[in-house]
Amino acid sequence: MTERSRFLVTGGAGYVGSHVVAALRDAGHDVLVFDNLRTGHREAVPDGVTFVEGDLADRALVDTILASGPWAGVLHFAALSLVGESMQHPLRYMEANAGLGFTLIDACIRHGVKRFVFSSTAALFGQTEDALITEATPIVPGSPYGESKHMVERALLWADRIHGLRSACLRYFNAAGADPDGRLGEDHRPETHLIPLVIDAALGRREALHLFGDDYPTPDGTCIRDYVHVTDLAHAHLAALDAIHDRSVVYNVGTGRGHSNMEVIRSVERVTGRVVPWHLAPRRPGDPARLVAGADRLRRETGWTPRFVELDEIVDTAYRWRLEHPHGYGPLQGG
Fold this sequence. Notes:
Layout: E1 6-10, H1 15-26, E2 30-35, E3 50-53, H2 59-67, E4 73-76, H3 83-88, H4 90-110, E5 115-121, H5 144-163, E6 166-172, E7 174-176, H6 194-202, E8 209-212, E9 224-225, E10 227-229, H7 230-243, E11 249-253, E12 259-260, H8 261-272, E13 278-281, E14 290-291, H9 296-302, H10 311-324
Parallel strand pairs: 1-2, 1-4, 2-3, 4-5, 5-6, 6-11, 7-10, 8-13, 9-14
Antiparallel strand pairs: 9-12
């Protein structure tokens, strides 16, 4: 995208959303962030970006925002995102992710939006024997969270066929790291992602790490995940926007490299020079043994290439941000 455009980003005060907003701003675009701040942070919205606090359930407000277009596209990140929580509250996840996703898609159609980028997930795939998960891997969600994201993907398919809304469904693997320039980072309340949890354990900011399961069918018995740097992930969204002027696409976004939970612990120890305290805990429901992306389609069709491919590089950006922001975007709240 070379000409200056205007984009609406839902959930743009969250972890991935804020990095995408920064990438859009760095590319010279105008952005409006719409976020209810339940998990996002107002401080993560860059200067010069319009911010509206609100919820997708407020249909009148959504209509008012979309009516203030034209919009070059909508990027949708707002969602509940905890696999374990979704196993406890499945209908809450269906309503928040699928139901409100349908509300936003319908509003976009009514207001003439032509491009829609959706924050999807590798949790669509559940348990699989595939060494690399491609876009052709059968979709068998292992959790209500994954199911809710799949429902939105299906809605977008029909929104394209019937209404011409072009979409990109980006199936993230594990977003990790922080803005290399130190502007943004990861601050969940409570934190659930492995890399910041391991870093905080190394820094003595939390109790010993819980390692969930060591009896998976992997070389060291711990789960294997594909960690994609959040800035590389952000640039994948810009590449996807360019790809959907005349068609809809579905892309896996990852590095094609898998790292076990134990390898993450060892990486944090190398980067920080500290010992990570940890102890074994039972498996969590819904956790597949291995999720590694086959992202060749994204690379081939858009030219996207990840800049950060080594785990230590990714961990280093996360570590530096957490050192400089010991309380994230503000005072500690919760666990």
